[in-house]
Amino acid sequence: MKRVIYIARMFVVVSAIWLMGVVPCLAADAGQDHLGKWSYTDEIRKFADPMTENLLQMINQDNYGKFSKDFSQKMKDVIPESEYKKIRDDIQTKFGSYASKEFVSLEIRETYLTVYYKVTFSQSEKPVLVRSVFVKENNKVRVGGFWLSPLSYTGNNGEQ
């Protein structure tokens, strides 16, 4: 009987030692997968950041030709120069001039991806959420959508 209790205790000790050694290794492996996803995000940002920066800068400079240079054909159809002027004037009136952007996140779908930025403008007290949508057209990455909306935080922020 004592031998059975001794074997059971040894099993518990060996199991505990094994868990202490294996669990950190599994966590390290999971961390490596996480790093792989982040490097994929970095690859996406290599084209998304400059294309979004161009859109925002060209709104400041009122240059439709450069603003629309990366548009998909559908975006060119939806936002011709006459519509761009209205959109630009609305952005300038509501938010002012573009100042800076900060990457927030991205979302990958089967036929498109969306990159989110927190953007500051000269006349806006709160940041603005910019969503840039990218599609592949004729083997090139193109802007397939572009939205700006005031960024509001959920929950109680202490203000009444």
UniProtKB/TrEMBL annotation:
Signal peptide extent: 1-27
UniProt keyword annotations, A-Z: Signal
Transmembrane residue ranges: none
InterPro entries for the chain: DUF3887
Keyword Signal appears in the UniProt entry: yes
Gene3D superfamilies membership: 3.10.450.590
Domain DUF3887: 53-140
Record carries keyword Isomerase: no
Name under which the protein is recorded: DUF3887 domain-containing protein
